[in-house]
Structure formats: C-alpha cells, structure tokens
C-alpha cells in the first residue's frame, strides 16, 4: 500500500510550478522555497512509511497550499510584538523593560555601522564607549569603577570565578534564591568553582553565624536580595552595615547582589523593598551587582560596580570575554543611564517608569472608558472596570504589589483559557492574566498609546 502511495507524491518541479508556490519563488527566494518543498516531502514520505496519514494523499494544489503556508510562517520575524496586559511590569517572558526612545535612537546610530566598543583584556582598560558607560554608572552609584556583562547571572558567575574559585563564599541560608527556574544561586556558585558556605537558617541569620564560618578558605561574604519572596514572622537578617564591618575586620570583600538595580528610591510608587545601588556603595559594599533590564529600564545586561582594584581583577579574567556585551547593549544602556541623571527626565522618558508612575486615577479612567468598548466585542459576554493589584516581577510569590485598574472580561462561549489563547494569537499579541472567573487586562502595564490596539485585538476574536 505504502509504495503505491509514495509513487503518487508530486515531484519538486511539479510543486514549484503550481499556482500557490510559483509566486513565492519570486517573493521569498528560490532556495528557501525549494528547501521548504523538500523538507515537507521528506516528512510526508516518513508519515506514509509509518502509515500515520491513513494512505490519503491530497492533490497537488492542496499540497502546494500547505507548503506555501508553512514557508510563509517561517518568514515571520521570530519575535512578535506583545501588548503586556498581564500586570507584571518586569515580565521575563516578555523581554522585561521596554526601551526609551533615546535608547532606540542611539541603537539606530550604531547598529548599521562600526562603533568604538573594544575592551582591552590584557590591561583591563575599557575603550572609549565602555568608559563613557562606566563613567555614567560611577556617577549614578558613587562607585569607583564599573563593568557590564551579559546579564546579572553572568555578573555573579564572573565575580565568583574571578575572586573565589577553589575558595569559599559565605551566604545566608535565607538568601539562596531561585529566579525564574533557570537561575539558582547555588548552581551558579558551583559553576564558578567557588564553594558555597551556607550559614544561619532559612528564617534567622546573625552576624556571629558569618563570623564563625570565616576561615582560611574564605574568599568573600555575599548578600543576595530576595527579589521574589519574603521571609515573614520569626526572622533575623544581617544588615549590609554589619556585613561590611565584618568584612573589613577580616579583610574580605563584600559582594551585594541587589537584583533589580534601582538607582534611586521608588518608594513614592509603592516599591518599598528594593535596595538602591548607590546606597549599597555608600554603606561600603565592595561590589554591587544588578540587572540592566529590571528597574533601570534598559537593555538586558548585568552591571558590576565597586572598587577599582577588584573591577580590574575581574575585567582581566578570561570569562569576561565570554560574557561581554555588544555595541547594541552599550548604546542602549548608555542612553538609558544618561536619562537617569535627571530623575524627572527619567520618569518622563523611560517606559518602565512611565508605567510605574501612572496615577491610579488615570488607570481608572482608561479602564472605565475601555470596558464598554470591549463589552461590545462579539466574543465578549461581559466586561467591567475593576480595581486590582499588579506586580513588579514575575516570580512565583511576588512581594511587590502595585495598585492598578483592569478591564475584567468573560467570554460569550468557551473557556477563559481559550479566550486568553485567542488574544495571544492576535496581532499584536495580547497577554492578560486570569483571576477567578475573569480574564483581566491590566492597564498598569499597557502603554496609553496601545489602548485602541487592545480594543481592536478583543474585537477581532471570533
Ligand atoms: C533577577 C535577579 C538575578 C538574575 O538576573 P538576570 O539579569 O536575569 O540574569 C540575580 N539575582 C537577583 C537578586 C535577581 O533579582
């Protein structure tokens, strides 16, 4: 049966001449279409061999149409734009912080040409562009020197490799974090060749715990901000001041992984628990590590600021080369940092801060204006404006909650999951969040300029 069906499969030439595929050769490219056709026919033959297709063979046109759809799908950009209506400001799955216009302009300036970016590894000296970014980081945090790598996980790996391979780093048991599943501090520590010396307990760690752990093999003391959980109740943690005093007494560097990397206090927006980079430096941390694409509102990168002698030592480590950033990152980061020099300008121009600072009344007005428009969509049974809580980060137990307003909707038919999935396949894709019997579209994370696209997206759901 199978060989008989196999013989009926049209040839590549025949398919290329077919009505659906002929125009594609012109539009896409001969090579792409030919390899698309070959790949498809290979799969078809394999399916027939396993007789998973039941022995049916579509006619040439039907087959060609299938292949054409597959080829066109492959021509779409791999990343699709998304309206983030999840209420999670720093959503790792959605690329974290959106960039400012100033960052986009600077990217545009260097992306298509050459730019001064090189880093002299032998001397640890930074090139002009790296020095400009370093200067801005020092200005914003009060540190002596700075180094930028691929992300904060890379910053941690690099710092531990350069300062502590074959030695011990002391960390509190209450701070052995996991972030987003793929980042676990003990694993990063192990990959660096440093040994984790855990002290204290999950809920209580005292200075004496650190002090008793210090020995011949100790290379550093490390504090890690618990970005995505809180330990409440019967607790005790050592302050950075105490840790720095201990480090000084034993001549050990203190590494402070602050995570989100606030360059100033955002208490006025309800963010009360995020350490500020400049504060850690001022208190005396020798190295402070943070992400560029969290509260800083810049591109993905990891930032290391601190003492010059330590930064030079780190910059000379071979891993620096493996973890370095490209010109696109340096351009976007430089522009973002320049905006931060003036807090008012940063609030106006950095999208993340605009979203964070949007007054609750504005969100309420928008939700009340959009709800009836969304309620009019054929797929929607009911839609109303509701007050709720948005989140700073996407961790499993996010502790930073922000006041917000949402449009809550219920589908005419089918499940909430199906509605959510339909919205995710809209253009641009819309990502909301489910709560009880409602699908929430949270306006805390939707740019005001995207409101009409949001409505159009819901109206388009069948
Ligand atoms: C987010 C975070 C990290 C990981 O940072 P990436 O930039 O995602 O690599 C590490 N430590 C802390 C405390 C964090 O909050």
Overview of this structure, please?
It contains 20 helices and 18 strands. It starts with a helix and ends with a helix. The protein has helices at 2-7, 12-16, 22-27, 30-49, 60-74, 101-111, 128-141, 152-164, 185-192, 207-213, 240-249, 277-283, 308-315, 319-323, 327-340, 343-349, 351-357, 360-375, 416-424, 451-459, and strands at 82-84, 88-90, 119-120, 125-126, 145-149, 168-172, 178-179, 183-184, 195-199, 218-224, 254-259, 287-291, 302-306, 380-393, 401-411, 429-431, 433-435, 438-442. With 462 residues, it is α/β, with parallel strands linked by helices. The radius of gyration is 27 Å and the shape is globular. Bound molecules: pyridoxal-5'-phosphate.
Q: β content, as a range?
A: 15-25%
Report the average pLDDT across residues.
91
Sheet of most strands: 7 strands, mixed
Q: Which range best describes the helical content: under 10%, 10-25%, 25-40%, 40-55%, 55-70% or over 70%? A: 40-55%
Low-confidence stretches: none
In DSSP terms (H or I, runs of 4 or more residues), the helix count works out at: 20
Question: What is the radius of gyration?
Answer: 27 Å
Order of strands across the widest beta sheet? 5-13-12-11-10-6-9
Query: Span from first to last CA?
Result: 42 Å
What is the number of beta strands? 18
Derived from helix and strand composition plus strand pairing, the structural class reads: alpha/beta
Shape: globular
């Amino acid at each position: 049966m199978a060989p008989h069906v196999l013989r009926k499969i049209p040839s590549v030439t025949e398919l290329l001449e077919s009505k659906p595929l002929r125009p594609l050769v012109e539009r896409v490219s001969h090579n792409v279409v030919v390899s698309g056709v070959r790949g498809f026919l290979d799969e078809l033959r394999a399916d027939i061999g396993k007789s998973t297709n039941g022995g049916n063979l579509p006619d040439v046109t039907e087959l060609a149409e299938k292949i054409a759809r597959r080829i066109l799908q492959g021509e779409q950009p791999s990343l699709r734009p998304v309206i983030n209506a999840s209420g999670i400001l720093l959503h790792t799955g959605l690329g974290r912080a959106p960039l400012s216009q100033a960052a986009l302009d600077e990217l545009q300036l260097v992306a298509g040409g050459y730019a001064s970016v090189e880093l002299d590894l032998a001397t640890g000296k930074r090139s002009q562009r790296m020095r400009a970014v370093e200067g801005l980081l020092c200005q914003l945090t009060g540190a002596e020197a700075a180094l930028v790598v691929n992300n904060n996980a890379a910053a941690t790996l690099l710092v531990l490799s350069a300062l502590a391979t074959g030695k011990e780093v002391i960390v509190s048991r209450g701070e052995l974090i996991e972030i987003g599943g793929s980042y676990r501090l003990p694993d990063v520590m192990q990959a660096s060749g440093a040994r984790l010396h855990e002290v204290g307990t999950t809920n209580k760690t005292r200075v004496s715990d650190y002090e008793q752990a210090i020995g011949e093999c100790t290379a550093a003391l490390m504090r890690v901000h618990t970005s995505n959980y809180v330990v409440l109740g019967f607790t005790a943690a050592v302050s950075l001041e105490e840790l720095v005093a201990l480090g000084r007494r034993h001549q050990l560097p203190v590494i402070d992984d602050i995570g989100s990397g606030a360059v100033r206090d955002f208490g006025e927006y309800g963010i009360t628990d995020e350490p500020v980079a400049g504060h850690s430096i001022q208190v005396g941390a020798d190295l402070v590590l943070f992400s560029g694409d969290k509260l800083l509102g810049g591109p993905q990168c990891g930032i290391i600021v601190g003492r010059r002698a330590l930064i030079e030592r780190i910059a000379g480590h071979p891993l620096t080369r493996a973890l370095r950033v490209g010109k696109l990152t340096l351009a976007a980061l430089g522009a973002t940092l320049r905006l931060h020099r003036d807090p008012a300008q940063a609030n106006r121009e950095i999208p993340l801060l605009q979203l964070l600072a949007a007054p609750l009344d504005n969100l309420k007005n928008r939700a009340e204006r959009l709800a009836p428009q969304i309620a009019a969509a054929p797929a929607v049974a009911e839609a109303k404006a509701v007050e709720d809580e948005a989140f700073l980060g996407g961790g499993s137990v996010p502790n930073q909650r922000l006041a917000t307003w949402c449009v809550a909707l219920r589908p005419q038919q089918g499940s909430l999951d199906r509605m959510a999935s339909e919205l995710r396949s809209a253009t641009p894709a819309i990502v909301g969040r489910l709560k009880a019997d409602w699908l929430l579209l949270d306006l805390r994370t939707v740019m005001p300029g995207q409101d009409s696209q949001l409505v159009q997206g819901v109206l388009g759901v069948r």
